[in-house]
Amino acid sequence: MKLQIPFWLYLVALIFGVVMGLAGLRYTPDGRINLMLIWLVWCGLPFIGACISGVMMFRRHQPPWLVRFAKLPGWQVDHQFQLRLWLKLHQLWYLVGLGILLAFLTLLLFTDLAFGWSSTLISDPERIHSIVSLISFHWQAYWPAAVPDSALIESTRFVRIAPNAENISNAGDWWPFILASLLIYNLLPRCLLISVCLLQIKHAKPPKGTFAPIATASDTLSAAVDEDQQDDKLQYEPMSLWQNATSVYWESPAVSADEIQFGVADWQEDQHQWQALISKPPKQLLWKVDVRRSPIAELGDKIQQANHKGIKQALFLIEPETAYPPHLVLSWQAFAKQHQLIWIQ
């Protein structure tokens, strides 16, 4: 499954980053740029967001929090599609960071930037020096100029009630620290996440349960020919041999409360119910599906899991009273062949 987003969205992300950079470097009425605020917006929050998204990337069996919060049923996106979705998201945030970097370098070249720090809660310059040294730990060995010293921190401290105009000439010496922070805490994490996504997409195997239903007349004819040639691969058994089997309704309402139903309730509820079922595997599992539904990957995954447990499985079509296209039956028969299901007549 491919995921394409319009090209203009990449331009919007880049322009949004440039706007963020220009807005952050606007002088306050006091004549200084708030260093602590721009570091938080440009580096701190993007780094936290990259860490959170990196953790969420590997939670394959969990739907997004928005889907769980809204209690939306039917979240059935395969892992490879989720990787492509994460890839696009990381690319957009990378362009936002790149736009911030471009705005910063442009204003650094053509304007005189003066930075100052101030905090209501942290007033000790030594504590600020400790925090800055911790932040600069990654590059202090090979770029010492990007590690602010105690003199720079002390001289650029800004007190609103009594602004210090002395040593204002070194207020621009914070730029190496900001540049290094942008590279290490904003752009580098997104580059790493993009690389991880590309590697996983490259080596990811297509889901075994993925199935494309037959939709055209020519495909229907081809499937009918294949069916005639491969009838021996589809096993047929009467319903009388499956009277004691565990019935599972897929995307169809169950007849009684004792029977199991999947594909209609909440995703997490289905997962708990499915794990409870295969933890004590039955000898026979009868899948009852609506012929008007299309085979999907999630059903195929559950069938594969049941096969690994040694459960004998069969497929029974629930046919509506109204007429339906014959290619729907061919689609389910091809699905049954693919997953070695017994066809119940």
Structure description:
- The chain has 345 residues and is of the alpha/beta class.
- It contains 11 helices and 8 strands.
- The strands form 2 sheets. A 6-stranded parallel β-sheet has the order 3-8-7-6-4-5, covered by helices on one side. Strands 1-2 form a two-stranded parallel sheet.
- Strand 6, helix 10 and strand 7 form a beta-alpha-beta unit.
- The two termini are 34 Å apart.
The average pLDDT value, as a whole number, equals: 80
Q: Order the strands across the largest sheet as they lie in space.
A: 3-8-7-6-4-5
Largest sheet: 6 strands, parallel
CA-to-CA gap between the ends?
34 Å
Total DSSP E strands: 8
Low-pLDDT parts are: 207-225, 227-231
State the secondary-structure class: alpha/beta
**So how many helices?**
11
Anisotropy-based shape: elongated
Give a quick rundown of the structure.
The protein has 345 residues and is of the alpha/beta class. The chain contains 11 helices and 8 strands. The chain starts with 6 loop residues before the first helix and ends with a strand.
Layout of helices and strands:
Elements: H1 7-24, E1 33-34, H2 35-57, H3 65-70, H4 79-110, E2 115-116, H5 125-135, H6 150-155, H7 175-203, H8 217-229, E3 236-237, E4 246-250, E5 260-262, H9 267-279, E6 284-290, H10 297-308, E7 312-318, H11 327-338, E8 342-344
Parallel strand pairs: 1-2, 3-8, 4-5, 4-6, 6-7, 7-8
